[in-house]
Amino acid sequence: MVENTIESSGPALGDAEFEVLRRLVHEAAGIALSPAKRQLLTSRVARRLRALGYQTFAEYIRYVTHSDPTGDERQQLVNCITTNKTDFFREPHHFEFLRDKAVPHWLARGGSRRVRVWSAGCSIGMEPYSIALTLREHLPAGFQVEVLATDIDTEVLARAARGVYGRADCEPVPPAWLQKHFLRGTGANAGRVQVRSEVRRLVTFRQFNLNQPAWDVPGGFDAVFCRNVVIYFDRRTQQHLFDRFADRLADDGFLFIGHSENLHGVSTRFAPLGGTVYRPVPAAGAAEVPVIAGELFAAGTPVTVRTVVGSCVAACLFDPVARVGGMNHFLLPGAAPPGGDPGRFGVPAMGLLVDRLGARSRRAAPPAGEGLRRGRMVGGAAPHGAIGAENARFVLSYLDAAGIPVDGRALGGTTGLAVRFQPHTGRVGENTVRRCAGRFRRGLVKPVKVLVVDDSALMRQLLAQILQSAPGVQVVGSAADPYAAWEKIHELEPDVLTLDVEMPRMDGLTFLRKLMTARPMPVVMVSSLTEAGCETTLKALELGAVDFVTKPKLDLTAGTLELAGELVDKVRGRPGRGCAPAAPRSPRSGRSPRSRCGRRTR
């Protein structure tokens, strides 16, 4: 009787096995399975056990993790977990929006007669076919419709590509469309219908994992449908996903999500239009000037530019809201006093902004704006349209010397450059382009999120003020001890941690050791460096801290400001780098451990 009971109920899923399977599913597909989904996971994975002839979940896990070199079974695991609920014209208000708002917008914009839509999480194909039918019916002849339909589940994609459905599944399809765009089955296929080939040709199906590190999907989509998909992801995965969608939508594109989903607290890169339809939000603070070798039409009046050079970078530095309207925007500014009118650009405050950029990028450097204000066109007043390569070299070399990073070194040619200046990060960049008829825009680099951990309330306040005032840094919270820090790490998901050494309840080194085991992340130690503190700091580096700085004094002395700049530089340099333990530093010749590590606090 016991054996019969066990056989009828199937193999038991232990706590450790549940955690392993949950982790495998999350790593493979980004799907977050809560403890409430344990019974669902048990019943669905049990089918794979029976198919493979295994008696226990432990045997199945060993096979997936050690005996599945091709990854086929991991894909089968994902297939059996995913839910494929879908219908034709599900959430009909989205297709009404497509018909009444999106299509008229695409018709009015002129230019390209091509519409590209992405159906992400397409299941058995009813959603992408609904999109294709709507566009085919309401766009004029001559429009090129392309629908990309992706899903992580390989089995549903095979069915979707065939386009065969039960007649009852097609009840939401208007009768006239059913007659026009579907073939009715006969004989053994009676009661079934198939989407006609001319509609199927509009849809491209492919297997695609939204959680994979790199996306090989080109941008510029006019619409993205990702409905009832992200509800299975954790918040961090959702945020990353919508950032990626924003990058791949056209500036005037539309995002459609499920009726039970919303972007509040998930993404700031979209604005709601109602009915779970969203539009991308232009990046604030990013200003770019498109420059084309040859004729430039961005201002409506053709302007001939013979050479595209780095003096455009100077123009961007001095006017982040400039629109290309003539050669004034391309000339280097003339001499001016600090903070004065920087030439013809009409924005005196930009000189001060450039000064501040240089001061923050490299504390020892002279103000960045000064060198640019002294710069003049080589040979004096240049003829209309002539910009020399010497000016390019001057601007680039000066920006390098001032510590303001420049992305790209192109100095012109038959193609053009879209030059951008990002006040938030202090970065200047260039994108190579062919032709344009307006302004290029690119989103700002996300700020570094920092969590400050220190037992002193005054020190937490001082560190937060120092970091928050720096461009490209966002203090997301603070904690008085490691226990509070651990909770806030999971809640706020910071990029970098600043960590004090001496704290109550648990010292910084103990917490660092536990943190690097459970959740490795970049940690910058902030400590009072006595001789004993020096050894503690070296121990912290061995445990995995990426760097250390001397704890600043509570009075704003020159030394404190210098250390503040050092802290900002080290925090801002950490994201994207590994968090492997730093190698212990060997003493330099003639220097004691105390002088090598930092100042003695009094």
Outline the structure in words.
The chain is α/β, with parallel strands linked by helices. It folds into four domains: 2-81, Chemotaxis receptor methyltransferase CheR, N-terminal domain (Chemotaxis Receptor Methyltransferase Cher, domain 1, Orthogonal Bundle), CATH 1.10.155.10; 92-280, Rossmann fold; 287-433, no CATH class; 448-597, Response regulator (Rossmann fold, 3-Layer(aba) Sandwich), CATH 3.40.50. It is built from 21 helices and 21 strands. Strands 6-2-1-7-8-10-9 form a seven-stranded mixed beta sheet. The chain has a five-stranded parallel beta sheet with strand order 18-17-19-20-21, sandwiched between helices. Helix 3 crosses helix 5 (72-81) and helix 18 (508-518) packs parallel to helix 19 (531-543). The chain is flat, with a radius of gyration of 30 Å.
- Read across the widest sheet, the strand sequence of neighbours is 6-2-1-7-8-10-9
Query: Share of helix among residues?
Result: 25-40%
The proportion of residues in beta strands is 15-25%
Structural class category: alpha/beta
List the total number of helices.
21
Any idea of the CATH topology of the largest domain? Rossmann fold
Straight-line N-to-C gap: 78 Å
**CA-atom Rg in angstroms:** 30 Å
The residue ranges in which pLDDT falls below 50 over 5 or more consecutive positions are: 1-8, 284-396, 402-445, 574-602
**Biggest β-sheet description:** 7 strands, mixed
What's the architecture of the largest domain, going by CATH?
3-Layer(aba) Sandwich
Mean pLDDT: 69
Give the tally of structural domains.
Answer: 4
Family: Belongs to the CheD family.
InterPro entries: Bact_Chemotaxis_MeTrfase (IPR050903), CheD-like_sf (IPR038592), Chemorcpt_Glu_NH3ase_CheD (IPR005659), CheR_C (IPR022642), CheR_MeTrfase (IPR000780), CheR_N (IPR022641), CheR_N_sf (IPR036804), CheY-like_superfamily (IPR011006)
Keywords: Chemotaxis, Hydrolase, Methyltransferase, Phosphoprotein, S-adenosyl-L-methionine, Transferase
Catalytic activity: L-glutamyl-[protein] + S-adenosyl-L-methionine = [protein]-L-glutamate 5-O-methyl ester + S-adenosyl-L-homocysteine; L-glutaminyl-[protein] + H2O = L-glutamyl-[protein] + NH4(+)
